[in-house]
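Let's practice the habit of predicting before peeking. Look at the sequence and jot down your guess about where helices and strands might fall. Then scroll down.
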Amino acid sequence: MVNIIVELSKYLMILLMGIYTFSCFSIFAHNYESEQKWILIRQNVLMFLLQLTAYVVMYLKKDDPKILTLYAASAGFLLAVILLYRILYPKVSKLIVNNMCMLLCIGMIMLTRLEEENAIKQLIFAAVGVVIGLVVPVAIRKLDRLKDWGYMYAGAGILALVLVSVLAEVSGGAKLGFTIAGFGIQPSEFVKILFVFFVAANLNRSLEFKNIVITTALAAAHVLILVLSTDLGTALILFVVYLVMLYTATRQPLYVAAGLGGGSVAAVLAYHLFAHIQVRVAAWKDPFATYSDGGYQVAQSLFAIGTGSWFGMGLGNGRPFDIPVRESDFVFSVICEEFGVIFGICLIFVLMSSFILFMDISTRSRKLFNKLLCLGFGVCFLFQVFLSIG
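Done guessing? Here is the structure:
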């Protein structure tokens, strides 16, 4: 009986996710606020139905009361987020809030399926993130001097990266962060935020050549420290974010061409200097040929996606523990194995709709500082998705 429920549930969850994804784009065809309101409410209903279905399946599979507790906590948390944003920020982009909650919902489902302890930690981090997210807009509006603290953001970011480079232990070939009281802390995730604030503040202050040179030098310092720590993903994200923000502020394609040229030369040099990078490139080119020498993770993730096929194995029926780093870097493979490639494609479209909304808000912002902030965070979000899934 449980197997039948699991089999039927996967089709139901794909249907719910498909309808939600379609509404992310169909909402733009409705000009009246009342029509959009009902679409947004429908999205909330679809999300909570998907969440309920997933947790019922996991409870039936494991018969663990902790799953019901996690369901109640995560459902209450998502409901609180939706209500708080609508009460405190009546003009908030409700579609972005819905997408954020849907992504958190899927993340919590997968972490509960993989490791309940990680799901609890994620819920705590999400709560802290939401509190910060509720405070930051007020701070930007009230503290006009935030746009004058460019060098403070740069100094704090570089200091944090230097500490990681010197003190952190090597994990997976890179120095990423610290473990404090059982929680893994990666300062580079906070540095991404500081970096966007730094670039927006400095470019907002002046677009003279001298200031651009100084800003570029400080941005390059961030990237160089990350490269030396072999945190190549974050280094690439900051590099791309800076180029996009610089071009948006100056409209000078020469700066972008120079940046791409310099970045290409640096990439070639890094490939020849660091064995870690050579292994990554070899695994990317042909993970199966390097299966026992760096390609194992990618190959296993591709096996999982292929096994899931279009409709997935069903929640709890896959073999996610064969995939290394399944709870973070390769979680998309776990999603595709158990929910199916159709669900995975819908997830990508939800992420893309969020990015489109970020860019829409950026283009409508009148102040350069706010425009660059939204653009920087949007590009950071998009490229993080590209690296994590790609």
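How did you do? The longest helix spans residues 33-62.
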